[in-house]
Design goal:
With about 220 residues, the chain is of the alpha/beta class. Helices cover about 35% and strands about 20% of the residues. The protein is built from seven helices and seven strands; from the N terminus they run E-E-H-E-H-H-E-H-H-E-E-H-E-H. It has a seven-stranded mixed beta sheet. Helix 1 packs across helix 7 and helix 3 packs across helix 4. The protein is globular.
Length: about 220
């Protein structure tokens, strides 16, 4: 169900589990590159695929993501399977569902899983669907139970920096804004900012966060 990427095989390093976004699997260019960069910072990174994506890989048919309850169960299964303290997170939808698992006390029924979660990381959190800023996905972020790091592009169509500034969010959330970044954290060439630099900043911020939570 999951594929892992370790830093020089040192799987005793602090554990980060990351899930993919709605449209691309755990082996996408973004997920592979980011896992590698974070692992190079001394983190044991595990990637996994949600059930609907596994079916897509098996028969080649595109499917929409499963509903949140099924995605949450997939998250709980991977955490229970690895059975060690961890930070969870992911790209876009993967990070959103991880934040729900980590911060909503009413979700799920595996108390041992909750105890293993030490924090959450979201890369490009989808604060709202594109073009629908009125449909905010933030209710569970108003009061957190676990530390949360969000790395966002300032011009993300699912929540720009100006839009997010007006949201009611827990003040403990660590928000890292990448100048001119889009939903994939990528800046425009004309902006003068460099994508590689944004990715490096993201990896270093995530690794530092994981180490603070797990030690």
């Amino acid at each position: 169900m999951y594929k892992d990427y370790t830093s020089n095989g040192k799987d005793k390093n602090p554990l980060l589990i990351i899930a993919h976004g709605a449209g691309a699997d755990s082996q996408s260019d973004f997920m592979t590159d980011m896992a590698s960069r974070i692992a190079d910072e001394g983190i044991y990174v595990v990637r996994f695929d949600f059930p609907y994506m596994i079916k897509r890989q098996e028969d080649g048919k595109k499917r929409p993501p499963d509903r949140a309850p099924k995605l949450i169960v997939a998250w709980q299964d991977i955490i229970a399977n690895l059975a060690r303290p961890c930070v969870i997170g992911g790209k876009s939808m993967g990070g959103r569902i991880a934040s729900m698992v980590a911060n909503d006390a009413e979700i799920g029924n595996l108390e041992n899983v909750d105890a293993l979660i030490k924090g959450c990381v979201s890369l490009g959190y989808p604060f709202h669907p594109p073009g629908k800023p009125e449909k905010q996905r933030t209710s569970h972020l108003e009061k957190l139970r676990k530390p949360l790091l969000m790395v966002q592009g300032t011009r993300d169509t699912m929540g720009t920096k100006d839009e997010v500034a007006g949201y009611t969010l827990d003040k403990s959330i660590e928000l890292e804004w990448l100048a001119d970044g889009n939903h994939d954290l990528k800046p425009r060439k004309v902006s003068g900012f460099v994508y590689e630099h944004h990715l490096d900043l993201t990896a270093k911020a995530v690794a530092a966060f994981v180490k603070r939570q797990i030690g």
